[in-house]
From TrEMBL:
Protein name: DNA uptake lipoprotein
Organism phylogeny: Bacteria, Bacillati, Actinomycetota, Actinomycetes, Micrococcales
């Protein structure tokens, strides 16, 4: 079986059931964060460069996470783990800093106050993503004799 066939039909298909919902939510957040950061950077980057740069970073993270969750190879599985782990770290760090020192963020980011502007989805989503990845590892690519 070729790698392309394994990728589409392998037993580690993460694009079914709740996996589809997870990917859809990541896709929506990717679009929302991209749109938000684009408008913020174009209109008023000088007002809050840190906050707007963090929103752009969140957009990139959500885009890569979406792609990584859709792909079914071992490489993309590792990329998904790294990206979603980075996302969780970002949400926790930015969320905590936005509460402890609000002056750092003149304007809200996607991850401010743990994603409160997005119904705390940015806080819950990486936990669900990690749970999903742990339950759906990639299929072995071959056996060694």
């Amino acid at each position: 079986m070729t790698e392309a066939q394994t990728e589409q039909t392998g037993p580690a298909n993460r694009v079914s059931g709740i996996g589809r919902l997870l990917i859809a939510v990541y896709g929506v957040l990717a679009l929302a964060a991209t749109g938000r950061s684009f408008v913020q950077i174009v209109r008023a980057f000088d007002d809050a460069p840190l906050a707007y740069s963090l929103s752009a970073l969140a957009a990139v993270v959500y885009i890569v996470a979406t792609i990584a969750l859709v792909r079914r190879t071992a490489l993309w599985y590792r990329i998904a783990w790294f990206t979603i782990g980075f996302e969780l770290l970002g949400v926790l760090l930015v969320g905590t800093l936005s509460l402890v020192d609000p002056a750092l963020f003149q304007h809200a980011t996607v991850w401010s106050v743990y994603g409160s502007g997005y119904l705390f989805i940015p806080l819950v989503l990486p936990l669900l993503g990690m749970w999903w990845l742990a339950r759906h590892p990639p299929a072995p690519t071959g056996s060694r004799a």
